[in-house]
Amino acid sequence: MEPTAEHADAIVVGARCSGSATAIALARAGRRVIALDRAKFPSDTLSTHLLFAGGVSELRALGALDRVEETDAPRLPAALMAAKDMEVSAGYSRTSEGIDYGLSVRRPSLDAALVETAREAGVEVRERTKVTGLLRDGARVAGVRATGTDGVDRALWAPLVVGADGRRSTVANLLGVDEPYRTVQNRRACVFAYWKDPRAEWRSIAAQWREDDQLGTAFPCDGGLVLVLLMPPVEEGPAYRADLEGEYLRGVDKIPALRERLQGCTIDSKVRISTDHPAYFRRSSGPGWALPGDAGHFKDPVTAQGIRDALRYGRRLGEHAGPVLDDPAQLDRALRAWEREREEDCLEIYQWTNLLARAESLNPVEEELYREMSRSPGLARPMVDVFSRTRRPSDALPTTLAARMAIRAIRRPGPAARGGADRGA
Length: 425
Known about the structure:
Layout: E1 6-7, E2 10-13, H1 17-28, E3 33-36, E4 50-51, H2 53-62, H3 65-69, E5 78-83, E6 86-91, E7 103-104, H4 107-121, E8 124-126, E9 130-137, E10 140-147, E11 153-157, E12 160-163, H5 170-175, E13 182-184, E14 190-196, E15 205-211, E16 214-221, E17 225-230, H6 237-242, H7 244-253, H8 256-261, E18 266-267, E19 272-274, E20 279-281, E21 285-286, E22 289-290, E23 297-298, H9 306-321, H10 328-356, H11 364-375, H12 377-388, H13 393-396, H14 399-411, H15 415-424
Parallel strand pairs: 1-11, 2-3, 2-12, 3-8, 5-15, 12-22
Antiparallel strand pairs: 4-7, 5-6, 9-10, 10-11, 13-20, 14-17, 14-18, 14-19, 15-16, 16-17, 20-23, 21-22
Helix pairs in contact: 1-4, 1-9, 2-9, 9-10, 11-12, 11-14
Domain FAD-binding: 8-319
Protein name: NAD(P)/FAD-dependent oxidoreductase
Pfam families: FAD_binding_3
């Protein structure tokens, strides 16, 4: 045996949201867990970091919520959606964990809180450590090779290797499963910056506005800031890259209600942009390995589901695998069951997200939905609960109401209605 070889019950590659969640659940099952990450925490990463109530519930389930709330991120009990001068506001239905508010916490604070919660649970977190290869026992993955700050190449053996290392997963690449079996190319870019936010009357509201094919959001977060995210059509990406801050400010001006929201606010960070983030499912389990979080499944950021799913299905992976790590056959069955559970739970919201990510103006049925919600506030909460994942998209609207809205959209005069009917035919 190599002198630098070590043994654990599980090796988790990546210690951010999905990695910490998996490691916490495994440690709670009494397992020795080593989590490896290239970063030194606290550490930033590209993210729009909004959690609806369902995501906050996952923080509570992991035991991390108290730490996260030690930041000064305000609770967000209200969600606002607006389009074409129609404005809808609603709260959340209380989740099974008793949560009825959202949070938007910048990633240095959020990830550091998760890492500290993992350490408290007994996880050994090794920072500034790079995975360079996989170890195998026949067809099974049986560990990793990794190099830390001392430059020593170590063999870390374990019955389970978890690749929780994001969209460009090293583990997925080493396994040869980085090509997705289901994918959709994104149609919206993400361009965002933080603003100083003295608007106390807005500090409890997560807001989204649509104006023609433009989409803008404002999410109050820690540090007295508000995250202002624009999601223009991806074809506008080159113009943004040519003059990032100037085009960003012009993008804000394209959404008058967002511009009004930002009165008295000033930019407090550089502007960041991402234009290539296709949605996908990858094969996510096999003999001795699993891929939670963005390593295995990713949705367009337009519905802000990534962190919630990373936390939930990281935790569920640990709960599935923890009791059976000593039995390879049972472990493989547990990993397959976990992957099926995630796909069944995520497929409908994935498809719904892809519809919202098309970067088109409101179609006539969507316009009728906004009109109906503005007339009937009780309809808005089920739509907010879709984002919170306490309700499926297919359960948010009664079938009879959806049919009436479609009929009204077709009958409403004007070229928009006729164009929308043609597109839907």
